[in-house]
Amino acid sequence: MRGSISTRLIVLITLCTAVIVGGGMLLDYRVSRAEILERLDLESNERVKAVVVDIENWLSGVEAATGFLGQILSQREYSEEGLKQMLRDLVQGNEEIYGAAIALSPNQAESGEGFAPYFFHSDTGIAYANLASREADYQQQPWFRAPIETAKPVWSEPYFDNGGGEALMTTYSVPVYRIDEEGQRFLYAVVTADVLVEDLHRVLQQLHLGEHSNGLLLSTEGMLLSSRQAPEALRHYSEIAIAPENLKPWRDLLDHVRGGQAISREVECPEIEGQCTLRMGTLQSNGWPIGIVYSQNEVLEPLYNYQIKTVIISVCTILGMALVVSLVTHSITRPLSYLSAASANIARGNMDSPLPPAKGNDEIATLVRSFESMSKDLKTYIADLESVTASRSRLEGELAAAREIQMSMLPGAGEARLQQPPVDLWARVEPAKTVGGDLYTYSLNDNHLLLAVGDVSDKGVPAALFMARAISLIQQLSSLSVAPNEAMTWLNNSLERDNPSCMFVTLFLGVLNTTTGELRFATAGHTAPSLLRNNEVTVIDQDTGPALGLIPDQDYPDNLLTLCPADRLAIYTDGIDEAFNSAGEMFGVERFNKQLQNTGALDLAAAGAALFQAVASHAQEQPQSDDITLLLLEPSAGKHGSQRQSFDLAPGLTRRVQSWLEPVLNNWSVPDDAVMEMLLIAEELVTNVQKYGELQAKHEIAVTLRLDGQTLALQVRDPGVAFNPLAQAERADLGADIESAEIGGLGVHLITGLSNRQHYAREGEYNVLTIEKDLPVWT
């Protein structure tokens, strides 16, 4: 299973094993490589030394035999036949010498051509050649001239011996001097010994380190005496496969070697790809550079083969170990897999899912037993939790029902709005728990508005029950015509009875006269209301009595407050000003009044919601600790409306105009006395137009009635003769007899007495007379 413990164990152990084995292989490779390289270095050095020693011994032997022959000739006289015999014996007795010659100085030979016998090894035995022949012409050969010029033994550069051995060879030449009778040294002869280049090449091939390795032997002047490729023999090293840019490094290298240094250098392999090692030294006998070239890859091939075998064995070992780890891991973790499947079933609610058997006393068996015990405990716990949850659900359901019942006892079920001119009222309660002890109520009968805001001590169900009892009693007051202070005494006595728990309620109880704006109220230990007037908020001074329900027969002072247009009264419980935040700071009356001032331009509902939000923002994450109730009250802004009607001047004009005006005024809730006064004003106006306007029955007048807040305006527009009754009409003296009064004189007094403002204008051919009347504030 992907991601399981067994899979991770197998992967981790296998990876760790691979890392350990790989690290060991790498370390073994490094160590083995260093050892093999060191061993090869020693072997190559020993092999080069052995070959060099063989060649050195060989050439030393040749030099010794030749030098010994020269010493004999410098001291004794021999006939030419004796020289030949001695020379033949020398060649025949030394296998290392291919051929030898005794070349007399031309003035020491009996013949004018000179004397230079030469014996050498051939396929048929010891062969003879006369180097004094014209073809051989030994006196012009470098091997004869060089020792004479240097007066010391020398090895010649390789050459092909024409007329002599007829082979590639190099010659060791020794000058022989004698002393004459006068004590002067003179050249007697040059004795030589030849070594075949082929023999040198055969010895060099003993230097072998790999398939493409080979020995190198160069002459003093750089002629290649032995190489891997036969055609390269007797060619200068600069003529073989050496790039022009590498000639100088090779020249420097050979200069160092000729100077006696042993050189080891990395070069590109001439026949295969890769790097080769070049080791070179010099022969002590003749100073010829000698060395070996071998490929590192070929030398390290045994190491590579060893590493491949090691890798194959390691991979097989890791795979075998992974298989064993897999089997062992699956065997150990199989109970865990079963336990995981069982836990998944239990998580899905199948508490009876079987568990794997617990065998032994290891950690897994202990875990299985613990899981089995936990499963049983969990099963019991879930059963208990289901029972508790069911009980809690029933309790929550009952509390929800209680909340609905409690809210239903409040107008608007917890949030109410009364917009009935001249009253605009908004109220809301938010219990701290499912049910609470705060209350508000109101009722409007005729021109009296009963309103109450209360706060029961404590919270929860006991407070809710006491609140239900209190609001039931308060709502009974709506049908009684008693002063608030007297009603408060009655409420106190009623709540005090059968109150063994000594619960109490603070209450604001008031009655507003919607005609006069007078608010009479009494308080029982309740928070004083705040009044917003002219954009300033003040706390209402009040005389208060004790809370209701504690002590019977208490007196409560009577308070009076007259509300003006645009006033806003806020009545609330202490859940607002005593709301705490996480820092322990109360919301406070001052902050509440500031918010009340800031929301003065808002509608009552919007202002109330903003005040609740301000309290919540202040409390932040702090849970609500008390019930919150707020009631806002203000005079309504009044109605606005306009109606216009045209009437002809036919008989019955007054009746028709009043029949049209009266329902409009009643629909606008204009007080009855104001309606009556406006009907009288209208009668006076249209009667005067009909009588004195010099108009006929077909002419029409326009009557407009407009309500703008608390101002009622009546306008009559007629096409009669221009006449301003306000300025031109004769006014009768007030108090004089009716018979003596001027026509129309009393009418002007009636209009100005029943209205507040009058205005006349002549607009074209029309008289326009407007009468305005201010309605009572709480209309």
Describe the structure in your own words.
This is HAMP domain-containing protein. It is found in: Membrane. Residues 330-383 form the HAMP domain. With 779 residues, the protein is an alpha+beta fold. Helix content is 41%, strand content 25%. The chain contains 17 helices and 29 strands. Strand 15 (438-445) and strand 16 (448-456) form a beta hairpin.
Short description:
The chain is of the alpha+beta class and 779 residues long. The chain is 41% helix and 25% strand. The model has no long low-confidence stretch (mean pLDDT 85).
| N-to-C span | 85 Å
Topology, number of strands: 29
Helix/strand-derived category reads: alpha+beta
Low-confidence spans: pLDDT under 50, at least 5 residues?
A: none
Instruction: Characterize the biggest β-sheet.
Output: 7 strands, antiparallel
Question: What proportion strand?
Answer: 15-25%
State the helical fraction: 40-55%
Organism: Halioglobus japonicus
Transmembrane segments: 311-329
GO cellular component, one term: membrane
Keywords: Hydrolase, Kinase, Membrane, Phosphoprotein, Transferase, Transmembrane, Transmembrane helix
